[in-house]
Amino acid sequence: MKQDIAIIRELAKQVAEAAASPRQEERRRLWRGLNGLRPERPMVMIDQVCWHEMNVNDELTLLCQDKEMRAHELALRKILYQSRYFPVDFVVEDFINVDKAITGTKFDMKIDDNILISDTANDVVSHTYNNQFENMDDLEKLKTPVIVHDQAETARRIALAEELYGGIIKTRVIGAYPYTSLWDPINWWMGMENALFAIMDDEDLIWGIINRLVAGWMAVIDQLEAQDLMAPPQSTIHCTGAWSGELPQPGHNPDNYRAKDIWAWGLAQMLSTVSPAMHDTFEIQPLVPVFERFGLVYYGCCEPLDYKMDCVRRIPNLRKVSMSPWVNVERGAGAIGRDFVYSCKPNPAFLAHFDEDTVRKELTGVVEACKRHGCPVELILKDISTVQYKPQNLWRWAEIAMEVVHT
Asked: Is 173 exposed, middle or buried (0-12, 13-18, 19+ CB in 10 A)?
């Protein structure tokens, strides 16, 4: 245990040194400008990395023996690795988050799925989900989440963090960030094909699930606020920089954050093929009362939203909109204009069979289209399943992206 602590404290010193660099506050300032729709340049982030393919020179090799210590060690090593090899606009924070021991933030539904694994070292696997909602009686499976805070466990985590990081880097005890998605859970519980057919063949069942989900998310927000368990404003929101001069909102209590002091994020990837009208009916409209409670909203993921902006615009407090690799860039930029941030998701497949010209063409095309339409824009590379065990592909992508945004 003493050796584990010594390892972590040495890594923490390196993180603290990186966090003290003036470039970190400069990056926060640039993110605040972008998120306030006053960008100085496009911003770049890389997240959801295939870390099992990244280890070079044993920089990600874990030395701690205790399982909990290894989790702390891995988090620190990832921060140092990213800041060294693909920093882009990644901010090394001058604190370590310590999560309060909170349960009940999501519905207590088991996932019944089948998994296909292509690389045993990769935590990205293929799923097929079995349907657990055959009729209206199955709605009884959805019980309103009940928030529970294990104060003794939280105290233990705080004491451990102080032992690990005290005198080196600050620790910040945080609560929970509410979940707001409708269609990811529906997919996990029904399977995509079953759910899409149910929209047409069993609309009452789909509305029963949606209504219970919305009521559940509202109850989670109420409970987190009432128990002083809401987390503070995020550093990132769904892989993008979340620093904002607008959050927390005026009148906030640092010991009792509210939903309106933080970002929410929503997505409906499995509605990619439905019409804008159906997307509005079965996703946007039901979530309006949820999104109204938050300070800012990031919306979208892999679903193409370039032709759905008329309904996406109805989301209260909307600030960032995801534009996936499958959008028409010109149409997306024109639909967003100066009103929101165009959150570009470059194609991660280009990392597997790397070609510099292809990468540069994709990124330059997005940046130039956004310039034409006055769009604030960010380049967010995520969902990186593989680089074919060539981490240098990712490093070079980062260099090209920064060259493009500084052009």
From this structure: middle
